[in-house]
Amino acid sequence: MTSVTSAEVLFRLQGHSVSHGRHRVLHDINLSIYAGEKVALIGPSGAGKSTLLDCLYPQQAAYTALCPQQGGLVDILSVYQNIYMGGLERHHALYNLWNLLRPRPADKAQVSELTRLLGIDDKLWHSVDKLSGGQRQRVAIGRALFRQQPIFFGDEPVSALDPTQAEAVLKMLIDRHQTLIVTLHNRRLALTHFNRVIALRDGFIHYDGAAADLSEQQLDALYAQ
Ligand SMILES: Nc1ncnc2c1ncn2[C@@H]1O[C@H](COP(=O)(O)OP(=O)(O)OP(=O)(O)O)[C@@H](O)[C@H]1O
C-alpha cells in the first residue's frame, strides 16, 4: 500500500459551488482534509453528500478506493471476478484476463480471504445478480479493499447491512485505510467510528468539527430542521 505523509493536505475546496442547471446543490464550500483523518459526511437525503464526494475524489483518484452508492458491480460476473477487478491496475492486461478466467492460487487465496472476512465466502463463484442487497454491498466493499489504497471513499457503503455487520465492516474499512471519507445516515456510527464529522444541509456545511464535540441529539436536530 502506498502511504501518504501524515498531516499532508489531501483534499481542498475553496469557495466551491456546484449547480445542476439552475439548481445550486453545493454553496461556497471551504474545507481541507488531511492525511489520517476519518471523516463522516452526514446530512439529510439530497443535502449534497454524494456531490461533495464527486468533487473531492478526482483530487486523489490514484490513491483512493471508491465504493459508490450503486456499487458499480458487473451483474453477470462472479463475486471473485468483481472483487478481483479492484486490483486490475496492479497487473498487465493478459495477466488479468487469465486470472479472471482461471484464477491463480495466490490471487484466489487473497480474494477468498476477503470474502471470508466479509461473510460471503460461500458465494465466491456465484454471479452477483443472484445476491441480496447486503451481499452485493459486501462484494463492492471487497472490491474496494482489494484495491489496497491508503484512502477510502464510501457513499453509504454499509447502508444495506444489518447493524452488527455494518459495524464490523466499517471497522475493517477503518483498520485498512489511512484516510476515509464516508457518507452515512447512521449517526451513532458517525460519532463512534470517525474523528471528524462534516454535516451538510441544503448544500451548505452546517457543522465541520470533531466527532467528540457532537452528541447524537445534535445530529438528530440537523435532520429534524
Ligand atoms: N445529475 C444530476 N442532475 C440534476 N440534479 C442532481 C444530479 N445529481 C444530484 N442532483 C441533485 O443534487 C442534490 C444533491 O444530491 P446528492 O446526491 O449529492 O445528495 P445526497 O446528500 O448524497 O443524497 P442521498 O443521501 O439521498 O444520497 C439533490 O437535490 C439532487 O436532486
From TrEMBL:
SUPFAM superfamilies: P-loop containing nucleoside triphosphate hydrolases. Gene3D superfamilies: P-loop containing nucleotide triphosphate hydrolases. Keywords: ATP-binding, Nucleotide-binding. GO terms for molecular function: ATP binding. Pfam families: ABC_tran (PF00005). It comes from the Bacteria. InterPro entries: AAA+_ATPase, ABC_transporter-like_ATP-bd, ABC_transporter-like_CS, ABC_transpr_LolD-like, P-loop_NTPase. Residues 11-224 form the ABC transporter domain. This is ATP-binding cassette domain-containing protein. It comes from Thalassolituus marinus.
